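Suppose you are handed a protein chain with no further information: no name, no annotation, nothing but its sequence. What can you learn? This example shows the usual starting point.
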Amino acid sequence: MENTIYNLCKKIRNADVNNLKEILETNSNSILELENSPTLNRSNKNAIKVLLSLITELVAKEINESDYMLNKEEEIEIEHIWSNHYEEHVNEFENIDDFVLARNNIGDLLVLPRSFNRSYGDKSYSEKVKQYFSQNILAQTLNKQKYENNPTFLKFVRDTGLPFCSYENFTKCERKAPKFIYGDISSLKNNDSISLFFIVLYF
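A reasonable first move is to predict its three-dimensional structure. Written in structure tokens, the prediction is:
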């Protein structure tokens, strides 16, 4: 992973805007298909928040529901889909450290208004998912209502082949799906801004 980013950084060093665009377009797949997806930590918290906001906006724009999270009046925060209760996942993980690592992986993360996070952040998934339908597009996709009478969104899913689906339960296995969906979304239209953020996150 480090070699991929290191070699790319050597290529883009001192590149002008046109050369940078060409390099990113040529290498976008190698950036976005790294074995390890981003994991939240203290040093990359802001970068992860921006990355999730950009991914959310890419989908929202495609279905004509543009809702750029970073322009919201209310401050947004990173939302863990799993609440911080290891006891609810004790059958899925051998120890709490593995649970914490999985919980901080991008597949378990959304961006939502601070007020939502404070009200529901500690709730179980079964309680949260009911409220996700009133939030941004990525949160809505976890709720089955998003797949009812929603032709524009369903056409987007068919056209892109992105494996969106709702979940009644969000277990260790289900958590892997958003991680891969986020990577696939990021590579839509060779999005250069997303590619740059992956470089920042891994460097």
